[in-house]
Amino acid sequence: MSAQVSSSSIQHPPTVPSSLKAERIQLWLEEMPGWKLSCDGRRVRRHFRFPSRGESLTFLRHAIKSAEATEVAFGRRGPGLAYRGDLVTVSIWSNQGSFTEADLHLARLVSQPS
To answer: Using CA atoms, how far apart are residues 23 and 65, in angstroms rounded to an integer?
Structure first.
């Protein structure tokens, strides 16, 4: 007995964005002052310090809107945002050890003043 499976019933896994090579990440870090790669290479992070709590909250809203406007790859969560008075820290985690263009685009958006 043979079973037939129609092509419409086969579910394909979502496409995973291509990862960037380490050289590309290093060039990007040179172009984006303030962003640092963690020792294990799985996260880029930047601290943003502001003269007042109100300005840091305005920036935090900007960072959230930037994250909402960026396409997130399957299985990914958004950036990590930490707020403490006049300091906002943005962390972008790699997807299984590799960054994508969308990750770098998000960092650029966050870095631009609103």
So the answer is: 29
pTM value is 0.74
In this structure, is the dihedral angle defined by the CA atoms of residues 51, 38, 94 and 32, taken in order, positive or negative?
positive
Q: Which residue has the higher pLDDT, 62 or 5?
A: 62
**Burial of 107: CB neighbours in 10 Å, binned 0-12, 13-18, 19+:** buried
Largest CA-CA distance found in the chain, in angstroms, rounded: 74
Residues 74-96, mean pLDDT to the nearest whole number: 82
Q: What are phi and psi of 100, to 5 degrees?
A: -120, 170
pLDDT of residue 70: 80
> Which pair of tokens denotes residue 28?
């990007």
User: Is the Cβ–Cβ distance between 63 and 88 less than 8 Å?
Assistant: yes
